[in-house]
Recover the amino acids of this structure.
């Protein structure tokens, strides 16, 4: 009796909340939710993909991956690379109607670099001394040392420009987010959906898409749908316009005339193995090399991903400055189980005394399957790997923990990073390192040089020197690229989708 | 006790006997159990006459309760069913009536009360509801009229403050009160027959006395016939006009109450009477032994051949073991199912 | 009166087994009476079916290495995603692993889950309920209040909390499921103990001068065991279900463990192309759970024919 | 009745109190450093920041103080903030709770509708082929893992036949999860109803009702059902708790955006404030429902009502 | 209390807390409110009363199955009222009990022999073959066969079970037996044999017995002396002859006249039918507890609780309006 009433009410509410697809709405179904829309507080691709729709950076990447003007119409490097001055475009307005100017840039930079609550990627900004307002539309960044990656970083999503009106909100990133981008934040229901609305005042200065003005559609909705098959069904019934397709279904989708499958190229993503190097067995490079020799990376990739990912040879991804498969192959441990066994035998492991290790990764995509492949291959050289799959945050913590643990079984994990520049190597492997893992004084020195070297050719030499150490020592064993969130299946009745460089999803030109 | 009438004297003249109200003929009721089919009632016949109290007496497992439920058509099916015989009331065979017709009779012309007043009333319905629903069902009275009638009935069974108590629930009453209410419910449509199945067994002796008195009064004022089912020979002696004794699903003896107690014609009846300590008759402690009946009541699925009492009977002969004694009217209306009835009476005389 | 009838029949039907001598204890007798109890349980059709299934399951688990044509995690045993055929009766998964072999090996894990989880809850629960029911007073109040508190959380939540703390793994899931079910056993043990304690035979033993241990272990325990057998049998099915559920959510068994819940969870990505990956483990779970349910129901019925289901 | 309810309320409060103790201590049972696990982000957090977090969560205080502080916050409605996204836990939970309640309630309605009817019919027709059929289905239903049933239903009705939408949180989306959760629980209710009703049918007052000449329908409805309802209501209260537990799994299968799905995410993300909040809220809901059921029970059973 | 007294009960009281919960205590049920009596060697005291009068509680108090709230229980001169369980253990060799329900009083998981012989083990009286011998002996004594020792309770009939219960009580050779409604669950035909057995054994073994029953006829048959209880108190106590022949308390009279007599000729005797029910022991009426139902109640009865006073010849009655001109 009372239940019926309640249910009827519930049904009414539910109908109001959901319902069939509405023209003008682009619904993008993904396997996970954002963490936050604060670019200083979240790092996940799922979050970045969304806030990229809301905020612009000073610069943008063009289709070739080169930095081009965006919010800033020009930039100038002076004083041997220690002073970078940006001139902003006129007439840009924030979503709340206030004009976008130098104050917003300074507010953003100071927020990211300040002591209170610094950006998680603070170190990637470079050693910035001061951000100076020259006039309303001119901002100067004073660097302590020259920093080769500074300019391209200003095209990254981690340097998205936030409007200073965000300061008034106490729920910035979760309940409000004011930027200048093509879409305005409307609402976020954690676990369910993020709703963005078209910014009618948007002018496209740098985004690599053929639409100079505001987006064509009215709303962009990111919906969390963990079950891959339901995303598929939703796409096929027209309820959804864009989905993250399950890898297993890519083939069938490619054959479907009603669906277009986009595979991001030049994502900057790389998937690699790393080890807890501060204790046995992986404190010995032979153990690491043995692992690398033991795994048939090509086969594993083929079984798990087919041909939608490619083999990665270098510590940084294809499409990123310095990537050179031919160079890297020289130092790579090719598939050679016998050699692996021999190395292990040197260390005292064999059929009677298998090496027991933990093999971890984070949840999602088909990484768990990848681990099962690796596990299976390792078993053949008497390495018994126990798989652990966890949340990315947990994995990050775990890696650091494992590197600081003196006891316990060997530990390695399949990790992934996405970056637009080899400066990533500094972040990962310069002591203390993101995970306080592999590091050598020699490598430290090389990476420091890499940061301050601006000349491309010289910088490339240095990058390669770093590669050589990492690969020979098997401190980082590259496996494949890309690694996550790089597939988009788009309904044919929503044409106009595009993936920009470094996996930027662009919805500005979708007509639905 | 002394015998006041000679054995041979006819006890009753058919002409003086009141008209029969309910006639049970060759009633058979079966139950299916895991151990097999058991005949809880096997070929029982008797007649209930206008205005009389007929006691059906027997120990547990004798089939007396099943008999009463069979008459009411309340045998749960499955596992039970009436396998044969007839129950004639008002010219109709109740065993052949459909459910609708039975409903019209139950509680209206034939009413029943049960052993446990506490569990025989619905704990979640008010007394008023449980009293009026039957009245309304049979008389078509309005709720208000039915309540008035219910109050009247409660008054008749001496429930104080009946108007107030109508709204109360069974747990707020004592056992004796509830049995009064059960009787009030049963009598509320002025039935011609009241079947009382062990109505006082669950009650204390002083309450029992109240209830028995009430039933006697009701019989006197309404003229209803009462079929009293009990295991208590004392109650039988106090209440009954006539008695049917049952053992293992069979009627073993029938007769007027005085005759049964004075000159039982079945060894089982005699044994029961002798097993009972009678108030005010005891000598020195240990001076008199109570009569023992050896053995136990047989299982209905595993009955002895011949007479069902044969394995416990002191008088048992080969004939008893081989042949089931028929129920024969030997001496007028006092009769028994025993090959040796005639050997009994003198023995009884001798010991009493 | 039907009951009275049955009682009478049971009474009369009771006979034989005249073993002379004074039996030493309730335990020996319990064991001896198990046979009778067993036969009576097995007279129920459902229980027989359940028993056969359980036996098959146990045999399969025990002889898994001989029954399964391939090791459970052998990749490339066959081509990936093969439809069921003679060589791969349940087909193969994305790694070419033989689903049939994995399901067979999974039986071991399932038995393990059942034994360990039920072992935990049965032991702890029975002792808690028994002690609470026997001791009475404050011991009883505190123990049973605690049990009530835990009971009101439902198994799933407790299991989730335990896994949240301990981290996901099959053994943690087993422990979690075991702990979560304790109140159930404790309540049954408690209520049965109360009933038995209030039976006159307990008072009789008490006034014979029997000590605490004698009263608890010789008089009470053997009498509360039969209903607990029912609870434990049915408990196996809920433990198997709960553990599979946790594995399904990724909170239990980790890859490449052929645990059925985990297999099912992994298989759903392939439902369109290879439904068998998901179907067979699901069927296996269902049959196992069904088997223990049937068996438990049958035993219950043998104990209390009125509770026929 | 007042004393009955007072007693029940006392028990309810006690349950919640014990829960708060358990919940506040939960974090200490975590092997390793919970703060590090929780707050590790991509580029590491400095030890100072971790210390600050520790202080903020009060983890550097003695246990008793921690508990008192925790209770102080809880009583002000502050269940802390999530690690991921830094959102207030209570708000998040409350935003999603209705979804879970809707799911559990709809499932309960389905379960009751099917379960009560089937159980009643089976009890009434005890021993017949209909009883056997119903009870065989019921035992199959009880044995069905609901995540499996859910997936099969999902794939068949939503993915394969495309009869029902898969995206969103509309009424049509509620159908499959509610049915999944409802059907398996219907089997349980059917079994319990049957045995409860059989008990009632065997009661002597039913015989009395027939002996009064009441028609069968009236006896079944007024006498049997009313009396049988009392234990069944208690049982349904318990079922609701199971539904809440089951919802956790089913929400994950169907992507229904309730607290259960958030809880699982929180467990994967080791978002302890959220996990703690979830457990506490769950306990409160369960306790409230059971108090509600006690009320209903007391109202249905005059033995308690008039005490 | 005389030297030969086996059991002497003095002002025994027992109350129970009832209802209520954690928050409030709703009341006290005075089950036994000051009961005193003696039992001599070889004597049977019948304790009669209606349900709820406290007669079973008295039995349980004497067996120490309940702990008395107040008063003394002298068993062979030893006050057992305050004894701990441990201290009581040897006393249980002196006093034993027979229970009402032949079904629940025997542990279904133990063989008949084990049930009967348990006390021998507990009190370290006998073990092994000696134990078996003694169990066999007592089996024969109560009319069971020694070869039935290995059987289980469910294999015995109700009457046989009650014999087992008797055997269990007698194996420690007690001096006093508390028999709590030992035959009321049995069919009439079985009842007789158990009563006969009890009387025979009592004589043979020189037992004293407290025979608790609601059945006046049975009590009359087995008792030397009889005590009548009403609402937790003894209202009349005396020899069987006095109680049944010349009852002084109106309640005793009413009780006797209420018993149906298995003789149709006795129908026309005069009867006292009491009105109403027994009041609740949680809230007994003021003054004499019986005053609410007593046909002879006077003002004093409504105010003063009468003491149990001797009237001579060991007979005592608790009534203000003693009934000199008994109508009997």
């Amino acid at each position: 009796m009372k239940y019926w009433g309640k249910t009827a009410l519930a049904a009414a509410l539910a109908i109001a909340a959901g319902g069939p697809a509405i023209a003008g709405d682009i619904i993008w179904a993904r396997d996970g939710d954002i963490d936050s829309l604060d670019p200083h507080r979240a790092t996940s691709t799922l979050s970045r993909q969304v806030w990229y729709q809301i905020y612009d950076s000073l610069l943008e990447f063009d289709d070739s991956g080169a930095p081009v003007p965006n919010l800033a119409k020009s930039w100038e490097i002076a004083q041997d690379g220690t002073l970078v001055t940006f001139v902003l475009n006129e007439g840009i307005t924030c979503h709340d109607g206030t004009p976008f100017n130098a104050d917003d840039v300074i507010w953003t930079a100071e927020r990211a670099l300040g002591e209170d609550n610094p950006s998680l990627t603070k170190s990637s900004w470079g050693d910035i001394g001061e951000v100076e307002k020259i006039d309303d539309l001119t901002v100067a960044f004073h660097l302590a040392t020259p920093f080769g990656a500074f300019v391209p970083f200003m095209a990254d999503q981690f340097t998205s420009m936030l409007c200073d009106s965000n300061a008034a909100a106490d729920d910035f990133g979760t309940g409000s987010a004011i930027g200048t981008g093509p879409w305005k934040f409307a609402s976020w229901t954690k676990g369910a959906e993020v709703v963005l609305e078209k910014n009618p005042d948007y002018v496209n200065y740098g985004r690599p898409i053929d639409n100079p003005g505001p987006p064509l559609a009215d709303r962009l909705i990111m919906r969390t749908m963990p079950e891959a098959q339901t995303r598929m069904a939703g796409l096929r019934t027209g309820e959804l316009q864009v989905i993250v397709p399950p890898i297993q279904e890519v083939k069938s989708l490619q054959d479907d005339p009603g669906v277009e499958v986009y595979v991001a190229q030049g994502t900057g993503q790389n998937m690699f193995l790393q080890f807890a190097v501060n204790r046995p067995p992986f404190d010995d490079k032979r153990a690491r090399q043995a692992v690398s020799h033991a795994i048939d990376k090509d086969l594993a990739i083929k079984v798990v991903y087919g041909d939608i990912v490619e083999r990665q040879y270098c510590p940084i991804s294809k499409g990123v400055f310095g990537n050179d498969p031919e160079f890297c192959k020289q130092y790579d441990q090719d598939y050679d189980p016998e050699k692996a066994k021999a190395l292990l035998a040197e260390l005292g492991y064999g059929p009677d005394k298998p090496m027991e290790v933990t093999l971890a990764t984070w949840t999602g995509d088909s990484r768990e399957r990848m681990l099962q492949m690796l596990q299976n291959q390792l078993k053949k050289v008497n390495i018994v790997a126990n798989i652990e799959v966890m949340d990315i945050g947990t994995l990050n913590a775990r890696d650091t923990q494992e590197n600081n643990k003196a006891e316990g079984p060997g530990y390695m994990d399949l990790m992934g990073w996405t970056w637009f520049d080899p400066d990533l190597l500094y972040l990962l492997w310069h002591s203390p390192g993101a995970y306080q893992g592999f590091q050598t004084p020699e490598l430290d020195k090389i990476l420091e040089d890499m940061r301050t070297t601006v000349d491309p050719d010289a910088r490339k030499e240095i990058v390669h020197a770093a590669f050589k150490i990492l690969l020979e020592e098997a401190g980082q064993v590259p496996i494949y690229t890309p690694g996550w969130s790089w597939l988009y299946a788009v309904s044919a009745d929503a044409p106009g989708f595009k993936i920009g460089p470094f996996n930027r999803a662009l919805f500005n030109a979708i007509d639905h | 006790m002394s015998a006041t009438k000679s054995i041979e004297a006819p006890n009753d003249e058919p002409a003086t006997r009141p008209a029969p109200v309910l006639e049970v003929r060759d009633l058979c009721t079966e139950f299916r159990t895991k151990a097999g089919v058991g005949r809880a009632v096997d070929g029982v016949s008797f007649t209930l006459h206008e205005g009389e109290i007929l006691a059906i007496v027997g120990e547990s497992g004798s089939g007396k309760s099943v008999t009463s439920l069979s008459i009411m058509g309340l045998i749960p099916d499955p596992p039970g069913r009436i396998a044969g015989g007839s129950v004639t009331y008002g010219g109709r065979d109740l065993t052949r009536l459909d459910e609708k017709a039975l409903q019209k009779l139950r509680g209206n012309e034939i009413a029943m009360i049960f052993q446990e007043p506490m569990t025989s009333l619905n704990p979640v319905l008010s007394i008023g509801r449980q009293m009026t629903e039957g009245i309304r069902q049979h008389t078509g009275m309005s709720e208000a009229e039915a309540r008035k009638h219910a109050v009247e009935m409660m008054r008749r069974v001496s429930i104080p403050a009946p108007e107030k108590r109508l709204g109360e629930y069974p747990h707020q009453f004592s056992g004796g009160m509830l049995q009064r209410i059960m009787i009030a419910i049963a009598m509320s449509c002025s039935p011609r027959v009241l079947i009382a199945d062990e109505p006082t067994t669950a009650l204390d002796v002083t309450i029992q006395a109240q209830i028995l008195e009430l039933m006697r009064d009701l019989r006197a004022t309404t003229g209803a016939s009462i079929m009293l089912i009990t295991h208590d020979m004392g109650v039988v002696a106090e209440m009954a006009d006539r008695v049917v004794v049952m053992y293992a699903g069979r009627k073993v003896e029938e007769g007027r109450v005085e005759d049964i107690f004075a000159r039982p014609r079945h060894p089982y009846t005699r044994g029961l009477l002798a097993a009972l300590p009678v108030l005010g008759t005891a000598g020195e402690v240990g001076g008199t032994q109570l009569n023992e009946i050896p053995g136990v009541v047989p299982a209905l699925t595993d009955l002895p051949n011949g007479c069902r009492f044969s394995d416990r009977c002191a008088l048992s002969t080969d004939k008893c073991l081989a042949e089931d004694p028929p129920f024969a009217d030997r001496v007028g209306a006092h009769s028994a199912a025993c090959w040796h009835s005639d050997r009994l009476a003198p023995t009884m005389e001798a010991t009493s | 009166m039907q009951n009275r009838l049955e009682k009478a029949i049971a009474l009369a039907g009771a006979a034989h087994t005249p073993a002379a001598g004074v039996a030493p204890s309730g335990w020996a007798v319990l064991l001896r009476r198990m046979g009778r109890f067993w036969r009576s349980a097995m007279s129920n059709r459902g229980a027989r079916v359940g028993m056969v299934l359980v036996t098959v399951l146990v045999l399969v688990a025990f002889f898994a290495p001989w029954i399964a044509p391939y090791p459970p995690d052998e990749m490339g045993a066959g081509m990936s995603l093969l439809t069921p055929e003679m060589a791969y009766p349940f087909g193969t998964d994305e790694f070419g692993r033989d689903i049939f072999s994995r399901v067979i090996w999974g039986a071991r894990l399932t038995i393990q889950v059942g034994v360990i989880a039920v072992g935990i809850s049965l032991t702890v629960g029975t002792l808690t309920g028994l002690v609470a029911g026997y001791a009475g007073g404050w011991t009883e109040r505190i123990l049973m209040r605690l049990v009530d508190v835990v009971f009101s959380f439902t198994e799933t939540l407790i299991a989730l909390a335990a896994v949240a703390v301990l981290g996901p793994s099959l053994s943690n899931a087993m422990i979690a499921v075991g702990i979560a079910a304790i109140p159930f056993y404790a309540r049954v043990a408690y209520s049965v103990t109360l009933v038995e304690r209030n039976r006159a035979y307990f008072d009789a033993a008490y006034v014979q001068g029997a000590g605490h241990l004698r009263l608890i272990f010789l008089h009470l325990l053997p009498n509360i065991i039969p209903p607990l057998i029912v609870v434990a049998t049915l408990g196996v099915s809920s433990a198997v279900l709960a553990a599979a559920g946790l594995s399904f959510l990724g909170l239990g068994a980790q890859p490449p463990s052929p645990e059925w819940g985990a297999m099912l969870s992994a298989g759903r990505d392939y439902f369109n192309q290879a439904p068998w990956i998901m179907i067979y483990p699901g069927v296996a779970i269902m049959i196992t759970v069904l088997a223990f349910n049937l068996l438990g129901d049958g035993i219950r019925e043998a104990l209390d024919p009125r509770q026929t289901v | 009745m007042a004393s009955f309810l007072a007693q029940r309320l006392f028990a309810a409060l006690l349950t919640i109190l014990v829960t708060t103790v358990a919940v506040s201590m939960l974090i200490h049972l975590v092997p390793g450093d919970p703060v590090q696990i929780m707050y590790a982000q991509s580029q590491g957090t400095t030890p100072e920041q971790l210390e600050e977090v520790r202080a903020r969560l009060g983890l550097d205080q003695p246990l008793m103080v921690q508990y008192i502080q925790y209770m102080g916050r809880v009583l002000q409605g502050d269940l802390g903030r999530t690690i991921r996204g830094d959102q207030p836990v209570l708000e998040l939970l409350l935003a999603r709770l209705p979804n879970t309640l809707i799911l559990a309630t709809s499932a309960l309605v389905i379960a009751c509708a099917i379960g009560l009817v089937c159980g009643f019919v089976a009890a009434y027709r005890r021993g017949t082929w209909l009883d056997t059929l119903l009870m065989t289905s019921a035992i199959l239903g009880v044995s069905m893992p609901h995540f499996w049933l859910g997936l099969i239903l999902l794939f068949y009705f939503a993915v394969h036949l495309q009869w029902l939408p898969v995206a969103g949180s509309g009424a049509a989306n509620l159908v499959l999860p509610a049915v999944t959760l409802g059907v398996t629980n219907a089997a349980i209710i059917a079994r319990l109803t049957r045995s409860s009703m059989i008990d009632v049918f065997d009661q002597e007052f039913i015989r009395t009702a027939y002996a009064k000449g009441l028609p069968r329908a009236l006896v079944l409805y007024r006498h049997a059902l009313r009396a049988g309802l009392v234990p069944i209501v208690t049982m349904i209260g318990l079922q609701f708790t199971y539904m809440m537990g089951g919802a956790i799994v089913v929400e994950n299968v169907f992507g229904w955006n309730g607290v259960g799905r958030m809880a699982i995410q929180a467990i994967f993300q080791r978002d302890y404030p959220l996990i703690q909040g979830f457990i506490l809220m769950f306990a409160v809901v369960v306790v409230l429902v059971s108090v509600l059921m006690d009320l209903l029970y007391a109202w249905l059973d005059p033995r308690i009502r008039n005490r | 209390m005389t030297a030969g007294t086996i059991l002497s009960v003095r002002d025994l009281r027992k109350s129970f807390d009832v209802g209520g919960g954690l928050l409030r205590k709703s009341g006290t049920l005075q089950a036994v409110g000051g009961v005193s009596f003696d039992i001599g060697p070889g004597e049977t005291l019948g304790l009669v009363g209606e349900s709820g009068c406290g007669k079973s509680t008295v039995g349980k108090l004497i067996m120490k199955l309940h702990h008395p709230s107040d008063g003394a229980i002298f068993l062979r001169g030893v006050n057992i009222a305050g004894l701990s369980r441990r201290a009581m253990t040897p006393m249980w060799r002196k006093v034993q009990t027979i229970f009402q329900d032949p079904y629940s009083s025997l542990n279904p998981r133990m063989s008949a022999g084990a049930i009967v012989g348990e006390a021998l083990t507990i009190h370290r009286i006998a073990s092994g073959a000696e134990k078996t011998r003694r169990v066999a002996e007592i089996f024969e004594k109560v009319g069971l066969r020694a070869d039935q020792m290995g059987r289980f309770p469910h294999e015995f009939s109700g009457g046989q079970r009650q014999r087992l219960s008797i055997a269990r009580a007698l194996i420690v050779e007690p001096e006093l037996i508390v028999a709590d409604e030992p035959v009321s669950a049995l069919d009439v035909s079985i009842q007789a044999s158990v009563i006969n057995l009890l009387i025979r054994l009592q004589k043979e073994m020189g037992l004293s017995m407290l025979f608790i029953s609601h059945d006046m006829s049975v009590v009359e048959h087995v008792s030397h002396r009889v005590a009548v209880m009403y609402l937790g108190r003894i209202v009349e106590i005396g020899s069987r002859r006095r109680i049944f022949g010349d009852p002084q308390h109106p309640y005793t009279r009413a009780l006797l006249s209420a018993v149906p007599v298995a003789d149709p000729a006795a129908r026309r005797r005069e009867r006292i039918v009491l009105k109403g029910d027994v009041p609740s022991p949680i809230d007994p009426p003021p003054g004499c507890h019986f005053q609410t139902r007593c046909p002879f109640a006077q003002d004093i009865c409504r105010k003063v609780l009468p003491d149990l006073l001797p009237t001579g010849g060991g007979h005592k009655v608790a009534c203000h309006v003693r009934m000199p001109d008994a109508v009997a």
About this structure: Residues 101-173 of chain E form one domain. The two ends of chain E are 32 Å apart (CA to CA). Chain E has two domains: 7-94+174-317, 101-173. The mean pLDDT of chain E is 86.
